[in-house]
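Methods — Computational structure assignment.
A single polypeptide chain was analysed. Its primary sequence is given first, followed by the predicted tertiary structure written as structure tokens.
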Amino acid sequence: MRLDAVEGIADRDGFTDPVQQWPPAEASPSGMAITKGNIYLANLRGRLLRQIPLDRLSASTRHLAGEHGRLRDAAVAPDGSLWVLTNNTDGRGDPGPGDDRILRIAIDG
């Protein structure tokens, strides 16, 4: 039996669909941080930080959309804030003064 390759939601027997799917222009998750209450995904192509509540994995909120360019990674800082790394100087983004840098984002949970 041959199974075809599937990307995203297939709604077919033999495949487990993802909990969420985003348009290609908002995708390219490249880094992730997990807090007590949320998953934070840094997105290169989407140039945004996506927040996904751990108690509601089918929901998400967009943050920083287009404000800092490509977002490479996210990490929980020792003080509980979030560090987000920008990545615009790799030949694919639009470098600005001070790129690349680490942003400190205050978060709740």
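Note: DSSP finds no helices and seven strands in the chain.
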